[in-house]
From TrEMBL:
Source taxonomy: Bacteria, Bacillati, Actinomycetota, Actinomycetes, Mycobacteriales
Entry GO CC: protein-DNA complex
Entry annotated with the keyword Transcription: yes
Record-annotated HTH lysR-type domain positions: 1-59
Family to which the UniProt record says this protein belongs: Belongs to the LysR transcriptional regulatory family.
SUPFAM superfamilies recorded: Periplasmic binding protein-like II, Winged helix' DNA-binding domain
Its biological purpose: Required for the induction the katG gene for catalase. Involved in the response to hydrogen peroxide.
Molecular functions per Gene Ontology: DNA binding; DNA-binding transcription factor activity
Signal peptide interval: none
Designated name of the protein: Probable hydrogen peroxide-inducible genes activator
Keywords, ordered alphabetically: Activator, DNA-binding, Transcription, Transcription regulation
């Protein structure tokens, strides 16, 4: 019979994209992880992964099995946490997804407080774009996640705001200004970052009648900063957690542009995830949870 350990190993291999990375995450040897997957494949009667140039990829059977594995692990974890909750304790694992720019400044302090209040809860953190966070919440890979407000269909609490700023080469004529407007940025080649930032400032640009000359698309903030440093373009990025890069100037953006962030939980969230959400709601002003948008 398939064991909980097998399911957790299978999920980790799928999320990490390979045996080596999964073994590091699980604290096991690579041969042990490989044997576990081989045993599970033998029990199910079909291969779960196929090896491609980019790493291990789920087969059709693997995709079906992964959905059930996540559901099974979730319900077993929920059983333990709810039974423990009858004794007044919260146990289990908090699976939290965050966007990189929010982890250090907004999420980490909350996790520190949560860990002190609930020492029996383990914390697992995933980082990705806003779209990836929402997918993880929908697929059950995470039960709590950082999202941009407002958002429909999820129970959320306000986490905090991130101011967006203009990022230009230090040698640029714009670097001599204290503030930079959208039309001024539109005069230069633009570096568009992914991860949800563009969804914040692009509507404001359209309202101002501005169309950016998008010359580069950068998935990571570090890549966007390097392109700007090289003098190839300008960008708009969150001020929070923005590293000090020589050759790059950061200036206030006009009009002021803010990304509102919150913590959302899935409908089947565990007691640990709900406790984390309630903590965020209280610390954001004690106004309680934001009602899910219909």
């Amino acid at each position: 019979m398939t064991t909980l350990s097998q399911l957790k190993t299978f999920i980790t291999v799928a999320e990490q994209g390979g045996f080596t990375a999964a073994s590091r995450r699980l604290g096991l040897t690579q041969p042990a992880v490989s044997r576990t997957i081989a045993t599970l494949e033998k029990e199910l009667g079909l291969p779960l992964f196929v090896r491609r140039r980019e790493g291990l990829v789920l087969t059709e059977a693997g995709s079906v099995a992964l959905a059930h594995a996540r559901e099974a692990v979730h319900h077993l974890t929920l059983m333990h946490t709810e039974v423990a909750g009858l004794a007044g304790d919260i146990t289990g694992t908090l699976y939290l997804a965050s966007i990189p720019t929010a982890t250090a400044t907004l999420v980490a302090p909350q996790l520190q407080t949560f860990a002190q209040r609930h020492p029996a809860v383990s914390i697992r953190l995933l980082e990705g774009s806003e779209e990836e966070v929402r997918d993880w919440l929908d697929q059950g890979a995470a039960e709590a996640g950082v999202v941009r407000l407002p958002i429909k269909g999820l129970e959320v609490a306000a986490l905090g705001d991130q101011e967006m700023v203009a990022v230009v080469p230090a040698s640029s004529r714009l670097a001599s200004k204290d503030t930079i407007t959208y039309p001024e940025l539109a005069e230069e080649p633009f570096v568009r970052g992914h991860g949800g930032c563009a969804d914040v400032f692009m509507p404001i640009a359209r309202q101002a009648g501005v169309a950016f000359d998008v010359a580069f698309d950068a998935r990571e903030i570090a890549a966007a900063l390097e392109i700007v440093r090289a003098g190839l373009g300008v960008s708009i990025l969150p001020r929070a957690g923005l590293p000090d890069v020589p050759g790059v100037a950061v200036r206030a953006l006009i009009p002021k542009t803010v990304r509102h962030l919150g913590i959302a939980i899935s409908a089947s969230a565990s007691a640990a995830a709900r406790a984390f959400l309630e903590q965020i709601a209280v610390q954001s002003g004690g106004v309680g949870l934001i009602e899910p948008m219909k």
